Amino acid sequence: MPKDRKTPDKRGYFGAFGGKFVPETLMCALEALEHELTKALKDGKFLSDLNYYLKYYAGRPTPLYFAKRLTEKLKGAKIYLKREDLAHTGAHKINNTLGQALLAKRMGKSRIIAETGAGQHGVATATVGAMFGFKCDVYMGTEDIKRQSLNVYRMKLMGARVIPVDSGSKTLKDATNEAIRDWVTNVRDTHYILGSVVGPHPYPFMVREFQSVIGKEAREEILRVEKRLPDFLIACVGGGSNSIGLFHPFAKDKKVRFIGVEAAGGGLSSKKHAATLIKGKTGVLHGSKSYLLQDKDGQVSMVHSISAGLDYPGVGPEHSYYKETGRASYVGVSDRDALFGFKLLSECEGIIPALEPSHAVYYASKIAPRLAMNKIIIVNLSGRGDKDIDIVKEHIRFK
Amino acid sequence: MNRINALFKRLKEERKKAFIVYITAGDPNLETTKKLIKELEKNGVDLIELGVPFSDPMADGPTIQRASQRALSGGTSIKSIFEAVHSVRKSVKLPLVFMTYYNPVLSYGPEKFVHDCKTAGVDGVIIPDLPPEEGKALADLSAKQDFSIIFLAAPTSSAKRLKIIAKKSSGFIYYVSLTGVTGERRNLAPDTVSSIRKLKKITKKPVCVGFGISRPSQAQRLSRIADGVIVGSAIINIIERNKGKKDFYKNVNRFTKSFERAVHKR
Q1: Count of structural domains, chain B
Q2: Would you call A382 a catalytic residue per the annotation?
Q3: pLDDT number for residue A194
Q4: Which residue of A has its CA nearest to B77?
């Protein structure tokens, strides 16, 4: 890894990945957003406003919880959980939507739009929409509307309009296409709150900045409790925002290993997975160059994961950079194993995780027993599992 | 001189404007596409934009999304499109440009893409998700081969950006008439005429206008200011409605002719 090279660079590149691959109509909006973001991140008032909302509205800092029973059961490395499931709205997504909503206010926008897969980002966007008084439209694939109906209802309760997207795979990818089309059309009065570290520059950078609060808190807390840095950080990767948020503040701590867990769905050798970094190759989707699951003609693949939040053929450019430079390693966890992780954490710790971080929980449970007891793992528990109960019911049955 | 530059030179001498039509290659199949290219030329179309379908066309509205989907479902690949163009090139003289997204080009290999375009008889490419900043490498290697990279200008482009676009674009400049995706619109954006005038002041390159043009009267109005008028979704809708029908070519030709007369009217 090049020493402390600034990422992203001025053109929005993380090494060979990133950039701005968007219709010309959006270029001025991206320039304006970048300009405003740069100013805001140096503005004491903006930062203190953001911190205010993070603390009093979203309930930060979230705890770094030592999972004692899980650790004892696995008889290996100590497992800590970064409890993003306890943040307001039930996932880490609120960190980003608060930041972007404050920016949208500064830019004088009257309307916000978002894409959503699992619905957590949609809920977090609807939440700030209600709180700051924006008109709010959320695009969601019809497949996801079916499997995450609780979140659809929550969005509507908060006054957002949920716009069903019935094209392509009817999931997150297609919701993102439709949100971009809306933004191209209404760019003058609308801010697009992208929910992950994907999209054109400055989105991957901006979302990382807003999500880094996860890693900053985790780093401080582990140093306070354990008086040392952790050995492993484990987080699930769909677009990659909760993982980048945890990893980034540890980027210079070379001894801390990063593990991103992708959705292996029905298996990596099947076509039914969403393991972009493991099985994809460089491509351009939704405005940036990054790893992409695609066929030999460059058509984007249909992907699959039991968790709507990981069911995406692309990934944030910084993850591609982490993979190329070896800073992070990426592994796959199947639908079945994710369900195992889901049940394990529920039974062992009384914490029902979302299906997305269940992938990370499972992977931690697999490596912990092979590690010495003085090793430390932090798992990002990026969201809670209420939204997934209907799906899980089909797989885990009780007499 | 390449076919695009020769076309605009000739039209200038004749004091005429270019009538440009977009169709999606492989919609509903490549045999139809080949025949359509010939028919469009016969009916006075000056340049054809041939869409190379992409699974996720983010600058396109529902009409072209559906056309792309029909083409992909029918098994249309970039390779088969090259073959179709190569075979039709023997009998048509008009310039042909591809319109696609960057991922299929990147996946094919930009160098090989430009080379195979030249070999098949494709004169240029329009890539809506490739602004000049990201298109430098492709533009450089195209310049060496006298292959045109047509960049797009938008109503939201700043004066500074318009200059960059005008400088980097070759063949012509594609002015996007509205903030939005492709698709028929009842009305033109109110600032279209003044924006084209502004763009024409800073460049000598031809400026062609597209997006949303759905009636001959709109095409006629725009042809007074721009150097060319591009019709896409409106004709795709005709293709969609008439596919499989006995009068398919007759109906498409009648539609084409109505726009042709509007654009070429003096």
Answers
A1: 1
A2: yes
A3: 98
A4: A297
